[in-house]
Structure formats: structure tokens, C-alpha cells
Design a protein that fits this description.
The structure is a homodimer of 396-residue chains.
Chain A: H1 3-13, H2 19-39, H3 44-53, H4 59-83, H5 86-95, E1 99-101, E2 123-126, H6 131-135, E3 138-143, H7 149-164, E4 168-171, H8 177-186, E5 192-195, H9 209-218, E6 219-223, H10 233-246, E7 249-253, H11 260-270, E8 274-278, H12 288-295, E9 300-301, H13 305-313, H14 335-343, H15 352-359, H16 363-375, E10 379-382, E11 385-388
Parallel strand pairs in A: 3-4, 3-7, 4-5, 5-6, 7-8, 8-9
Antiparallel strand pairs in A: 1-2, 2-6, 10-11
Domain Smf/DprA SLOG (chains A, B): 100-311
Protein name (chains A, B): DNA protecting protein DprA
Family (chains A, B): Belongs to the DprA/Smf family.
Chain lengths: 396, 396
Amino acid sequence: MSDRLARVTLMRVAEPGDAMMGRLVAAHGPQGAVARVREGRPEPELAGWFADSLNRESAGSRHERLTARLGRMFASWAARLETADPVRDLAEGERRGARLVVPGDSEWPTQLDDLGESRPHALWLHGEADLRFSCLRSVAVVGSRAATPYGTHVAAEFGAGLSERGWAVISGGAYGIDGAVHRGALAGETPTVVVLACGADVAYPSAHHSLFAAVRSQGVLVSECPMGATPTRPRFLIRNRLIAALSRGTVVIEAAVRSGALNTAGHAVSLNRHLAAVPGPVTSETSAGCHRLIRQGRATCVTTPEEMIELVGAMGGDLAPEPRGPVLPRDQLSPEIRRVLEAVPARTGTGPATVAVAAGVDLDTVLSCLGALAAAGYVERVPRGWRLRPGGSPDR
Amino acid sequence: MSDRLARVTLMRVAEPGDAMMGRLVAAHGPQGAVARVREGRPEPELAGWFADSLNRESAGSRHERLTARLGRMFASWAARLETADPVRDLAEGERRGARLVVPGDSEWPTQLDDLGESRPHALWLHGEADLRFSCLRSVAVVGSRAATPYGTHVAAEFGAGLSERGWAVISGGAYGIDGAVHRGALAGETPTVVVLACGADVAYPSAHHSLFAAVRSQGVLVSECPMGATPTRPRFLIRNRLIAALSRGTVVIEAAVRSGALNTAGHAVSLNRHLAAVPGPVTSETSAGCHRLIRQGRATCVTTPEEMIELVGAMGGDLAPEPRGPVLPRDQLSPEIRRVLEAVPARTGTGPATVAVAAGVDLDTVLSCLGALAAAGYVERVPRGWRLRPGGSPDR
């Protein structure tokens, strides 16, 4: 069984974000994990780790209970494994126009590694945009489903403002803030990313059918669930960690004090991503969650898309730093980076795949070279891809 | 000439907040300052201090210029001194029902000492409430004159909420936020304080005539200007430092990015008072100044009167700390404090003057003893004055 088929199998076998399965995969690889589920025998070290993660248990009854619990978990995985048909899943997904990406693929967003053992085994993507490329400069925008007209207005403004400035909007495709921000983003030219809590082929909510179609042609739908999976409450919550992890920072627009959006905010903080919140009238309960985040000092108060960009842009270096003008002379660039630079056009932007062909290097290398060249001020991102930064390479 | 008459004279001679006159008074006392203006000869050390405060001047031309400037300043003071008639001013003010308080009086709010050389020489007060007592637990609430319906609604809620909880509201009596917060405060039982930028006998704005009448009967009007003085733009700005200095903290409700309310906010910060701002819709320009203060980390985001009280109450100790339950056993109290405690009634509150008579000590001593007793958890403030704290003195 190949790595890809094993990962498609794991999507069927374990619930998204199941850290115990993540542990098994980290120890034995996807194929090894599937084999161990098939054997049905939990290893002792797994029980030990389980005990650590559940330190509420009293020492006396711990061993028996944990062994029983692990046994039930393996039994439930094994039952699902019986009915899993990864070859059919893969064919069915591709027949529907989706593509599977797994860790190591050039489109895999490596920032998901920050999720540790809850990292997805694989993702189904459906849409024209390249997920990794789109997320290089991206902001998660989340908020209440029961948004007010004020909230949906602000969300649409943020969506359009971020997209116009080349920042991809990541959200959950739900009613209210999510829908408004995606629609706003579609008004710009930057891809927008919908992270679903169901299969990539399931339009939920169904009234967003045409929104999802527009995102497929100008962005990308993302799911860590197998095709056909229905959205459940736990899946919504566990999905939120992907929204936080894919982006450089999360901004909450309207959230009551008990809102799912605050769950995403919590993920952003624990992943060391930036967190921001948009204030609103103090008379509005749907802004109370935002105000609490600001008061607690957990979120920065932002009032415009520019302020959000200032916040996430300031992080600099690690993903796709802001151009600051050339800092490295051209002759200090590595030969590979110089080859990529030669292949970047001067006026109209071009995609990384075209640059890869022209430079004669692989796509992954192109993406990392473009990042370095942008940091050094030689190239810049435009809606259609990359181009030389005007005045950015005076010694060319 | 008495200290009081000298101070009334100085109110006529120098503009409010004139730090050069403050310097003169600090060096020679009010009578000495008047005498020196009459002599019309600036001292050399004054020129030196003047030079320090204007260090933009080039060294070469400095001495001549400063001497000329000081001369003009003394001449203008002397001209005003010619027409000043402090005996008439004092009689006229008292005839109108106002009272003069000067540093050292029991009603003088000693927190004004934080203003250093711009401390007022004296204050005209007009109204039933005791200024010093009212300001022990007080919050300044300021904001835009051109307030939105949202802003005036929130201001009225803050005024009523603070007043109901025993916190005096201090503001400037202007249109918009000021007026709304005073009206809200009048709905509670706690005095509200209007700090005017004109004479205590001048109703400005005149449409607030009846508001000022209500404040006189349930609070107090305050002015550092002589009777009859008209409001000018510099007087509004210099007045704002009194609003900030009298209170434990300032909260800004609606302010555009260029609003006079931000001037008060600046005074609050430089006086080490708490500063807070109320958020509003990001689509509203009159909330932009509040959001900027929050974003800059200069102001805490507050959304309710309770949150404002939490902020200023947490400062503790120095003015009128929150009751925290008795911390000192009764037999460790000084004999004087114990005498005051005996005179405080158990149920209905009574004013400090009554306590002073019953305890046989002067009003000033009563005020400081009550502060100490409140800090130790024995007594508490209620709308009508002070009473024993229920359960606050188990060993009585």
C-alpha cells in the first residue's frame, strides 16, 4: 500500500484531528499505522502516552481502564478499516475534480506541521488556486453565523480590502461573517480559501452552493474529511484549527461571548499566530466576544484591512516577508536563486509553475526561491503570480 | 493682603494654567507673586527657567529675547493687576451663591497638586456637593460634542451606571457626550461635577442652563476662572487638565481622531491616571479616536460602567481604596480614628460634617479617618454619606 493510499485509508479510519492516531502515524508512518490497526494490538508505549494525556485518572485503576479504552478505540478503527476502500475513494475524488495532497507534495502547506499530532493525514482540494501559494500571504477571517448587518458589511469590506492588496482570505464558508468575507474576497483577484467541515463534495450550507462554485473557480475548497462526509459539531470545532494554522493570523469580526469563532481564536493563539478582533457597538451582543478578546489583551484591536495587514505583515521572515528593497547584492545570490530570478518576468506576473519550467528547477525549489527573492526585494507578488519588483534590482 | 485675596487677584492677573505664574507662586507664595508683578521686575532665575522650558531658542540670541519676552509678560500681568478688585470679586462670587476654595481648605481636592506649576490658584465652586468628597471615587467621562445617537446612549448609560454604584461623574458640561453623561449621572444619587471653561456664573453653552441648575442642586460646578470670564478655545484645552486631574481615571466615549476629548486623554496619561475608551462601530468616524487609543495600548477597552469601575477601583490605596474586609483589628486603630468610627451610624449614611461634630474632630481629620476606615473595611460610602460596613467590624 502506497503512502497516499494509506493516508486516504486513515481519513476513513480516524476522526479528523485524532491525536492518538497522529501519534501512531508519527511513530510508524501511515502504512505502519494502518497495519497496526489491522493487527488490532495497541502497543504498551501508546498506553503510556495515553495515560500522560489523561492524568486525571487515579493511579490505581489507571492501567486497566486505559487498556480497555485503547482496546475500544482500536476496535472502532478496525471496524471502519473493514469498510474502507481507498482505491475507490481516490478515484471517486478525482472523478469529481478534486485532488489529494499529502505532506511532502509541493502544494502541501508546511505550516500545518505546527499542528503536531493533530496534523491532517491528507487534504482534499477542489479549485483552481494553489493552496500552498495562496496561504503564503493569508489571513483567516472568522465570526458569528448570526451576524448583524454591521458585521456582514465589515466582513465584506475586509474580504475585498485584503483581496485587493494580495492577501488571501481563509474562512469556513458558513452563513454570516464567513459567507460575507468570502464574497468580498471574490471581488478582488486574490484566491480565497474555504476550509470545510465536511467532504469536499458536500455543499454545506446548501444555500452556499453557488458561493462554493465561485470559490472553486477563483480559489480553493479544502477538506480533511473523506468525500461524502457530513458536517458534525465536533468536526466544525476541529476544522477550526486548520483555518488558524493555514493563515498568518486570524481576525474575529463579530462574535458573542460563546461563539465558535472564539474557538478558532484560541487555536490561533496556541499556534502562535497573530490574533485580532474588530470592535463594534458595546450595545451589540455579537461584538461582546471581540471586546472581551481585546480587553484581555489576547487580540489586537483592528478596524481596517490595512491594520490587519500591518499586524500579520510585521511578523516578517518566516513565510513571505514584506518587500523592503534589496538587501542582498545580486552577486551574493546562490546560482539556483539567480536562475529563478532570471525566469521571473518584468511586467505581467506569472505563476510559479511557469517559472519552474523556464528556470529548469522543480516547483518546490521555485516557491522557496521566490520567497527569498521577495524578502530580498527583487520580486513581488501580483494577482497573476510573480514579477520583478519595479526598481527592485537596480544592478540587473 | 490675605492668601485668599491674593489668589483671587491671581485668577484675574494670569490665564488659567500659566506655568510661569505657577513658578512665581511656588517660589514666593500668592502674596509674594502679586507683589512681584506689582514691582514689575522679573527675577533672573525666572529667565533661566524660561530658557529651559523653551530650549528651541538658539544660544546666541537667547538672553535678549527671553528678557524681552518676560518683560512683556510682566507688563501684561501688571496691566490686569491695575483693574483687579479682589475684594469685590470675592463678595460678588459669594453673593451669587458660589464659594472660593484654595489649597489648604478642607474642600480642596489635593490630587490637583499632581498638576505641579499649572495647579489652579483657587477654584470657584457652586453647588450642594462637597468637591473633595465627591472626587474621592470619581471617573471623568469625556467625548465628542458632535456625538452620534449611539454615543449619547452609551454616555447616558455610563453616567447612570457610575452614579448608581456611588461613583461621581466628572465632565465638562458641553453638548454631546458631556451633557448626556451628566444627565445620566443625575438619575443616580451620587453628585456629578461639571468643570467649566468660563466663570462659574456663566452658563455655557446657554442651552445647558437647566442642566447646570440641576447639577448645582445635586452636584457642583467648578471653575478656575474669575466670575464672568467667557470661554475661549485655550481655556477649554487648559480646563481639560482639571477634569483629568480631579478623577481617578478618564474614559473616552466617542472621539474623532482630532477631538478635544483626546486632549483630556493625554492629560490623564501624563498625570498617571487610568485611561479607558469605549469602542464603537469601525464604520463610525466618531469612534476612530477611541479605537486609536486602544490600538496604541494607551487606553483600556471598556464596554460597561462596571468595567470602568474595575479599572479605576483596582488602583487601590492612594485615594479611596475598595473595601476588602477588615485588615486591622479594632484595638490597633489610633484613638482619633476610633473616635470617628464610633460616630459613624450603622444604617443610614451620614455626611462627614455630622460625623465631625459627633466625634469632636475637624472635617479634614474626619475625611482622612474615613478614608483609612474604608481601607480597613470598617465603613463604606453610600449615596447619603458614610455608614458602618455590614459585617465589616465583627469585633465591635
